[in-house]
Each structure stands twice: as C-alpha cells, then as structure tokens.
Design brief:
- It is built from 9 helices and 14 strands.
- By secondary structure, it is α/β, with parallel strands linked by helices.
- It has an 8-stranded mixed β-sheet, with helices on both faces.
- α5 (about 115-125) packs across α6.
C-alpha cells in the first residue's frame, strides 16, 4: 500500500493508506479503520465487536454505535444482518467524510449523527436493542477512554438500552490500559446477569457484552458459513469467548 492522503482534523491526524483492493486509516501509528473490496474480517478488534453484536439472543433489529471511526465493524454487521437499523454518533466530522470517500460508508446504510456521543446519549429518548460504546480519544502516542460512567451517563445508557437488550464496549488492553479494563469488567459483572468477553489472538482489544441473556456462543460461531472468503471464515473461527461471573 502507499500513502494516499493525510488529514489533520480538530481531533486527530488521519493518514490514509491504500491500493486498489484495500484502504487503511492510520492514527497514532495504529490502524483505526480498514476496508477491503471483497473481505470483511481482519483478525483485529472489529471482528470482536461484530461477534459482540451478534451475541444478542434474538439478533438485534436496532443498533446504536457510540463512536464510528471508518465503520469497519458495521460493514461486517451489514453483511451478517442486512436489515439491521444502525445509528452511529461520531464527533469527528472529517473522519466521517473520509469514510464516505474511501471506505464506502454510504453503502452500509448507517444513520450518522455528528457530535459528542455521550452528550447526545444523555438527550436521547429512543431505545435500541443493542448499545455499543467504542468511544476513544487520541493522544500523541496512544488512545484513551474518557473513563467510567458518571451517574447521569449510566442512567442514559439504561434508558437507551431496551429491556431485553444488550450493552457492549470495546476496550484496548495491555500496558497502560489494565486499570480501565479491570474497572469495566467489574462494572459489567455488577450490572448484567450474563457477561461475555470476546477476543482474537492478534488484537490488543477486548469486547465486553452484557445483558439478561446472551445468544449461545456455538450459535454465534456458526455464522462463519455466511462469509464467502476462506480468510474471513478463518478469522471468525479463531475468535474466543468466555463467560464472566
């Protein structure tokens, strides 16, 4: 791949790399979004996230994504569930514009709201089958979560998630992130009857998903057969899940 463009936004610098078959958005030296002409899965965090959404016991009809990036996981979800109603809130309007230009965001059929995801959430009154928190800020050499939820935001999350719905979060793990990971694990275990951790070997990310009941993991794994590419089926096969008490 070669560098196609670099864009300095009010929130981050986005370096766009690509060729005729694939495109990456790189921020702080890491790939923050990926698109391929034929493939869906990557062996990285977006695979965990898609499997987290598909852990809904009856497959969600509505999804709220807090933090959009380039929409990598949403492209996979559109493949897995073509009729899924997706709403995404993203603070960086330039990122959204670049995703439309280079990653076919408009082809996914996502309703995109530009703004602060948490501020929007506190005003929202619509319920969703699944709410997914992928909100991260950027420092000069890493990404950082805003922190655990203040009472008003926790109330907004509870109000927004349907009674039989799920809540999920994408967490960066490893050095410098363990304290936040531990805090979120405790939050999930204390708030949900059924909690699942989803990882893949090459990724420094963990998806936590919680609710009253989750779809059996064996059923989620069977979705491998929906992917036409062998590489996609391989990446789905190596996803790992464990329950958390």
């Amino acid at each position: 791949m070669r560098q196609i463009k670099s864009k300095l936004t009010p929130y981050q610098r986005i370096d766009i790399w690509g060729d005729r078959d694939e495109v990456e958005f790189r921020v702080t030296g890491a790939t923050h979004a990926w698109w391929h002409r034929q493939k869906f899965l990557t062996g990285l965090a977006w695979d965990n996230m898609a499997a987290g959404v598909m852990s809904h016991p009856r497959r969600p009809q509505t999804l709220l994504m807090l933090g959009l990036g380039g929409g990598t996981s949403l492209r996979t979800l559109r493949h897995l569930q073509p009729n899924l109603d997706i709403t995404a809130v993203e603070i960086d309007g330039d990122m959204v514009a670049l995703a439309r230009e280079y990653m076919g965001l408009d082809d996914i059929g996502v309703k995109v709201i530009t703004g602060d995801a948490y501020a929007w959430l506190e005003k929202n009154r619509r319920k969703f089958d699944l709410v997914f928190d992928d909100v991260y800020g950027v420092t000069h050499d890493d990404v950082i979560r805003p922190g655990l939820y203040i009472p008003a935001l926790r109330a907004a999350l509870e109000r927004t998630t349907a009674a039989d719905g799920l809540f999920a979060v994408n967490l960066v793990v490893g050095k410098g992130h363990r304290t936040m990971q531990s805090a979120f694990r405790k939050f999930f275990v204390s708030h949900f009857a059924d909690v699942r951790s989803i990882t893949t070997p090459a990724s420094l990310n963990e998806t936590l998903v919680g609710g009253q009941a989750l779809r059996p993991w064996r059923e989620v794994r069977m979705l491998r057969q929906t992917f036409p590419q062998e590489s996609d089926r391989h990446f789905w096969d190596i996803l790992r899940a464990r329950g958390m008490a």
